[in-house]
Amino acid sequence: MRRMPLLIVLAVVLTAMAAGAVYADETEHTVTFEMPDGAVLATQQVPHGGYVDISKIPVPPTPPGAVFLGWGDVTMQINEDTVFTASFEYETIQYMVRYFADDRVTLMHTELVNSGEAAKYDVIPTKSDSGRYSYEFERWSADLSKVTSDMDVYPIFKVTERKCEVRFFDYDRTLLYTAQVTYGDSLTDFPESPVREPTIGYTYEFACWSITPNGNSPASFDDITDTKFVYAFYQPTLATYTVSFIENGSVISTIEADYNSQLDTSVMLDMKEGALIKMYRDAALTRELSVGFTVIGDINVYVKEVPGHYQSERDEQGRVIGGSIVVSHDSSTIGSLQTQPYQICDISQFPSGTVAVLDHASLELLRERLGDDAILCISLPRGSMTITASVLCALSDGHDVSMSIGNGPSSVKITSALKKISYSSYLNFSIKVNNRSVTELKGSAQLSFPLDVEDGASPKAWSVSSKGVLTEMESSYSGGRISFSSDLIQYFVLGDDGQGGKSETEKVVLPYGTAEYEVSGSGNDYQAEDGPQSKLISLKGDMKGNVLFVPSSFDNRPLTMISSNAFADIVDADAIVIPVTVRTFYWLDWSCTARDVYFLGDCPEFIGEAPSYVTIHRMSDRGGWEDGAEVHDRYLYNGSVGKDPFSFRYIIIQDKAYVDRYISGSYIVLPRSVMADGHEYLLSYVGDAAFMRSDNPSFSEIYRLEYSSYSLDTVEMPDTISEILSFAFRGSSVKTVYLPGSVVHIGDGAFRNCISLTPVILPDSLLYIGNDAFLACSSKSFSRISVPASVEVIGSSAFYGCSGLTNVSLDCIITVIPGSCFAQCSSLTNITIPETVRTIGPSAFYNCSNLLYIDLMNTETVGTSAFQCAGRPSSLECVVFGEPLRDLGRNSFANCMDLAELEAYCNMPPGMADAFAGVDLDSLQYYATSDVAESWSQYSVELLDEPEPGPDHTMTYIVVGMIVFFIIAGALSLKYRTKLE
After folding, report:
1. Are 479 and 452 in contact (CB under 8 A)?
2. Is the peptide bond before 341 cis (omega within 30 degrees of 0)?
3. Is 954 helix (H, G, I), strand (E, B) or coil?
4. Where does residue 244 rank: exposed (0-12), middle (13-18), buried (19+ CB within 10 A)?
5. What class is the 27-90 domain?
6. Which residues of the chain fall below pLDDT 70?
7. Which numeric CATH code is attached to 309-496?
8. What is the pLDDT of residues 405-451, one digit of tens each?
9. Rounded distance, CA 313 to CA 324, Å?
10. Is 603 within 8 Å of 628 (Cβ atoms)?
11. What is the CATH code for 163-238?
């Protein structure tokens, strides 16, 4: 019975085998032998489960460079249709392609290329133009798309006849025309001569095509062999304008004057026989017009006569030279004198310091005709004298009398005495007879001088003796003039008792507040539309009743646009002064409370209209203006130091004088006060770009610099100066500057690039040192600077690049040393960081490679690259980190590889490795206080102090030990007794 299952299984298997045998006999499979490309070489029919007939397997054709490897496993059992593919191994055949230059000699490149493949060298050869022809690569000398042999190839160039361009530009670099000319030929295709519109100052006639912009260098158009650039040059001719002189409503004379010329004093002397004319801006004769005013358009000048014969020394062209006017009278002129006091001399409109010479014969004739008691008036620049005919003739004693008013002398004794009083003018009323000075009159005279005082103040006048003794004069004050009697002619001081109704204007730390602006453009053409420029978005600050002087530059780019409502956040500004650089000004959305806006330059493009409550002030010699603005003159000041003359222009802003532009001179002593239209004003501001020098014509033009040659060496300032505005001395050759104890602000870039400047003593009144204020003052003599305690703000890059600076004393209470403040001061060896400083700005001491020691005891943040040295070795040996330090910027001490010691009173700040890039931190000697030493434990640290001793637990340990001992002993004793029991 057990064998039955086994028999059944065996029967099933035999049955299946028999069936398979039947199937195999009945089924065949096709076996195919083919090439790799699919070409069939032979086929066989093989029964299912059978094998290929080896004798019938074909021998395949072998391709060039190939070795037959076989058909695969042809011994396998065939159970289905099967394909065997011939397998070959190919030898790689490479061919060398050599690339030659056009001369077919110079080998440029070689390349190995697999047989049948394309060459891969993709450098496009070039061939230099040769005279009349130019060459453009067309192809190689043979087809390189399928290389089947070694090849030598060379480039084939397309030859074309060269064409050169001649580009014609207008004076403003606008492209007018482009002409084509065959290489080496002469140009015949010229554009029409261009036309340039006249300006307020010039008319222009096309002169030639020039090889330089705005230059008269005629271009040649023969043998043109390259692109040529030419520019239209126009011959400028000064525009001429008519000056009409009107008396009592009638024009009595006209003259033609060139644009920007100044009327000579000869006009006043020669207009009428037997009389001098005085000039006024208005028909009511209330606004005097000083001689020398600048002509920029047709103008009406209103005049009145002053009887007398006025003569002066003349040059060959009839112009007045010298500084003296001789005044005489005859019967006719005396008859024209109408009421007392009789005006026998009036040269008040002549330049300051002009001497009046009174003819002695005329004086006797005046006394004879008018009487001994006749009161005579002599008006000079800056003052007048009223005196009787008898006293004047007694003074004359048969000789001519000369009179003039100038500044008082700089005597030490007198200067010392003046410190005790509040004064604005110090005058020398000089009278000479027979070339000898007269100090004592043979009688009394009434002297009168213009004087402006604050409301509530009492005008004062003092006589000053030659020894400096001050004597107050009994005086009267009316119509802006102070008058007093004196029988002594010495020196006089004018002022007040200092008790004005107005309190002193509070000083502003930031002269223009905080600014938001945008910059654009590049290059060196500052007149171009895409040249470097800035746009003012807004200013924000409380001016506390001071004048807001808008800087002419931001980020060293001239300010050309002031956007809508830029002054909305300016509070309590007495006036706003817009620099000469501004071309576009938005009145839209104006909400500033300032009621006076001064424009120092040409009329900008106005967007919108000024509010009715705003008074626009403009300069009389700036162009593009129409009626509707209050007109101010710019005045010329002529002075001298010894025999060395100097001159500058000034303007009046809100009853204070502003130095506008340097004209000439090496040694300049700025006066305390200046005259304008019969009034005296304190000199308070050294203006924006006033003494600036530049070798860039477009830069000079946008700033309207006026010097013809530049020789500035020394500048002395009076104690009336409070502001040195932006760029005041930028690029100047000045060596010595004496700052008074009244200066509050040194503006942005004020002394930038003054490469000859010697140390400047900063006064204790100083509050603000602007951005870039002394940038690149690189003279070796500029070796030290002491910032006084009064300074509250130092701007970024203030002393950047002062490579001669070795010693800096910061006695101020600033909280931030701003970015790049002392960067590139490569000679700086030591600096004490003030205790008040909490932040060292980015790159503040970048590349100060001679610093030896840095103490940051009170500093919280050190900015990126603050003390980094790059490109030069650092001498820094020791750094102190104070307890407040929390943040080290990246690369703040990078490459300070001589650093040996680090003294720490703070926990190790994060980012040490980044801060000290290039420094082997493991090699330093670390000192730290015990309370922070743990945070520095990755380095070898020595303690700066002894750790505080902990409480002594010895007795506690003894007591506890004894208690444990007795407990254990007791337990053992109990156990022992228990066992015994």
Report:
1. no
2. yes
3. helix
4. middle
5. mainly beta
6. 1-26, 214, 410-412, 500-505, 946-981
7. 2.60.220
8. 988 776 667 777 777 888 888 888 999 999 899 989 889 999 999 98
9. 8
10. no
11. 2.60.40.4270
330 vs 362: CA distance, rounded Å: 7
d(CA 179, CA 189): 6
Phi, psi of 360, rounded to the nearest 5 degrees:
-65, -35
Two tokens, residue 802: 């002062």
Query: Do the Cβ atoms of 822 and 851 come closer than 8 Å?
Result: no
SS3 content of the chain, % helix, strand, coil (to 5): 10, 40, 50
Does 94-161 carry CATH code 2.60.40.4270?
A: yes
Alpha carbons 205 and 198: distance in angstroms, whole number:
9
Instruction: Express each pLDDT in 817-856 by its tens digit.
Output: 999 999 999 999 988 899 999 999 999 999 999 999 999 9
Main-chain phi, psi angles of 519, to 5 degrees = -120, 155
Angle between helix 389-396 and 360-370 (nearest 10): 150
Q: How far apart are alpha carbons 586 and 575 in whole angstroms?
A: 17
> The tokens of 107 are what?
């080998």
Dump the DSSP string for 524-566: S-TTSTTSSEEEEEEEEEE-TT-EEE--SEETTEEEEEE-TTT
In 3-state terms, what secondary structure has residue 698? helix
Q: Which two tokens stand for residue 328?
A: 């005489």
Nearest to 58 by CA among 81, 40, 77: 40
pTM of the predicted structure, to 2 decimals: 0.69
Q: Give residue 654's region: left, alpha or beta (phi > 0; psi -120 to 50).
A: left
What pLDDT shows up at residue 974? 53
What does DSSP say about strands 107-114 and 151-153: parallel, antiparallel, or unpaired? unpaired
Cα distance between residue 267 and residue 279, in whole Å: 10
